[in-house]
């Protein structure tokens, strides 16, 4: 496998609105990010993925872009953006941008033009259909609820929106539209960005008439065309958000020979705590054995061809320590265990802001405290469908996207040190003790554990290129696996729960083991019989050899 810079990097996702507010208007901004670059440097971060900072009416927090070439004034100016690039590069930190090109905002000039008439030059930038018997063209539904078709009275046609009606879908069949996208991507590449995270990119090949959303027939053609016309000429990182990815099509995206993307975000593991066939709000307990099956399937499938991305969190997902860890007594231990489990694998790990200090889900008492358009829609729908208020609030507490979007907790000062103004969204009240300041002062904090994991990836080829091998697939409490490269091995053992458990690893008289990292002091050195305390996670380096090297 040809080595790439992004094989050794850990990527830190910033959700600008909630990261750091420099001008005290209650909204995070670019200058606020610049103020925290040294913090990220200390964590060991070399790449930032910036969620959208473009001009936007913010119906979906920036994922509805009205101008790809300018910065939302709440976040700053293009000069601030240039400064962010400069200051990051001075610290050897790269920036990758969110690329949202499945849809634009309905306030984008292309759409404003397109709506004017059927023969407007921009009409065909979007997807329009005639009514079917006076109704929607078909039953395609929006990922935010309701029909994916919105009626436009003045031209008597419907347009497609796979998200909110303020996010009309671009028509990728239109070559002129595609060329406009290449131009825009090259504008940002020329500015010195280091790559793109591509929002719902598996939707661009859709066929709305056949009601196909993901993995449409022309998807890979478009990506290859994008490669040739934009990032293919540069050494950039590209990661596609692909909710519908299977291991088979992930290889299509990420096999370097095919010249598409470097890797994709796949979400199969993120569906394990919902009732199969239902929506993510229909909760089910996670089975560790299933988690092992899914993660291992991806590790094996993309072991030699393609490349995995590794993540527990992003701005659409609940906080992992509340989801699959323990956000009470064992918050610190379980956050470190989950980090170890993931960062020991093969692929490029992503850390979402606040994950590195073990931030938790927010318990909001009322639907009014939730801001996210998806959450509000789901609430209304489920009330209509007869769910009780209590049931709905329970699933929101577990799964709402706002869990990840509460302001970053910097200190125990008012508003968690995020802003001196009123934050755009409620701060999680536990900021008084879960915050960066405390984490930096405590050598046992989650922060320093992440710092060590990040450092290990930079300096240990076993973590980067070692082959993955799952141990004890049926063990219901312990997730253990090896990483193997030539004569060296890593053994990663994680107790996923609070009960103490034993783990036995086969050894010979020549087996030597040393601990590279653990979330407890004095973890067992005898790997033939390891007693794992609640949420204990250990990385051992193992070698077999008669000589005493
Ligand atoms: C995926 C993004 O991550 C999410 O936040 C957004 O709502 C949808 N795509 C639509 O852009």
Automatic annotation (TrEMBL):
It is an enzyme of class 3 (hydrolase). GO terms for molecular function: alpha-amylase activity; oligo-1,6-glucosidase activity. Gene3D superfamilies: Glycosidases, Golgi alpha-mannosidase II, Oligo-1,6-glucosidase, Domain 2. One of its GO terms (cellular component) is cytoplasm. SUPFAM superfamilies: (Trans)glycosidases, Glycosyl hydrolase domain. Transmembrane segments: none annotated. It is found in: Cytoplasm. One of its GO terms (biological process) is oligosaccharide catabolic process. This is oligo-1,6-glucosidase. It comes from Oceanobacillus chungangensis.
């Amino acid at each position: 496998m040809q080595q790439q810079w992004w094989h050794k990097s850990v990527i830190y996702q910033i959700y600008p609105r909630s990261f750091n507010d420099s001008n005290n208007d209650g909204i995070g901004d670019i200058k606020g990010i610049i103020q925290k670059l040294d913090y990220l440097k200390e964590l060991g971060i070399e790449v930032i993925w910036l969620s959208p900072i473009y001009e936007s009416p913010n119906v979906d927090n920036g994922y509805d872009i009205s101008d790809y070439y300018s910065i939302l004034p709440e976040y700053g100016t293009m000069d601030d953006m240039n400064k962010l690039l400069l200051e990051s590069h001075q610290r050897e930190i790269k920036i990758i941008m969110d690329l949202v090109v499945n849809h634009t905002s309905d306030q984008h000039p292309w759409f404003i033009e397109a709506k004017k008439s059927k023969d407007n030059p921009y009409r065909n930038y979007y997807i329009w259909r005639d009514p079917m018997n006076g109704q929607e063209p078909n039953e395609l539904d929006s990922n935010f609820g309701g029909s994916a078709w919105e009626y436009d009275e003045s031209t008597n046609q419907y347009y497609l929106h796979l998200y909110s009606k303020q996010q009309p879908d671009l028509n990728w069949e239109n070559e002129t539209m595609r060329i406009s996208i290449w131009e825009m991507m090259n504008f940002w590449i020329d500015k010195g960005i280091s790559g793109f995270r591509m929002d719902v990119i598996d939707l661009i090949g859709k066929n709305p008439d056949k009601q196909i959303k993901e993995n449409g027939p022309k998807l890979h053609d478009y990506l290859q065309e994008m490669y040739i016309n934009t990032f293919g000429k540069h050494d950039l990182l590209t990661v596609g958000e692909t909710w519908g990815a299977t291991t088979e099509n992930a290889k299509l995206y990420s096999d370097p020979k095919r010249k598409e993307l470097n890797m994709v975000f796949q979400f199969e593991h993120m569906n394990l705590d919902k009732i199969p066939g239902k929506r993510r709000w229909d909760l089910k307990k996670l089975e560790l054995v299933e988690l092992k099956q899914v993660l291992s399937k991806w590790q094996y499938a993309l072991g030699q061809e393609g490349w995995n991305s590794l993540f527990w969190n992003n701005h659409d997902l609940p906080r992992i320590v509340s989801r699959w860890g323990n956000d009470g007594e064992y918050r610190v231990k379980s956050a470190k265990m989950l980090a170890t489990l993931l960062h020991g694998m093969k692929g490029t790990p992503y850390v979402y802001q606040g994950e590195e200090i073990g931030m938790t889900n927010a318990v909001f008492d009322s639907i009014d405290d939730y801001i996210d358009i998806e959450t509000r829609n789901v609430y209304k729908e489920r009330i209509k469908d007869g769910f009780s208020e209590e049931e709905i609030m329970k699933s929101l507490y577990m799964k709402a996207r706002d869990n990840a979007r509460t302001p970053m907790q910097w200190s125990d000062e008012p508003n968690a040190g995020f802003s001196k103004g009123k934050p755009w969204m409620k701060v999680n009240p536990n900021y008084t003790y879960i915050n960066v300041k405390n984490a930096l002062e405590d050598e046992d904090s989650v922060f320093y554990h992440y710092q060590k994991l990040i450092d290990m990836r930079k300096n240990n080829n076993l973590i980067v290129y070692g082959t993955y091998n799952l141990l004890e697939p049926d063990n219901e409490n312990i997730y253990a696996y090896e990483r193997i490269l030539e004569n060296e091995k890593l053994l990663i053992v994680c107790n996923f729960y609070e009960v103490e458990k034993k783990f036995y690893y086969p050894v010979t008289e020549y087996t030597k083991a040393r601990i590279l990292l653990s979330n407890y002091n004095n973890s067992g050195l005898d790997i033939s019989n390891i007693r794992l305390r609640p949420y204990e996670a250990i990385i051992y380096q193992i070698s077999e050899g008669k000589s005493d090297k």
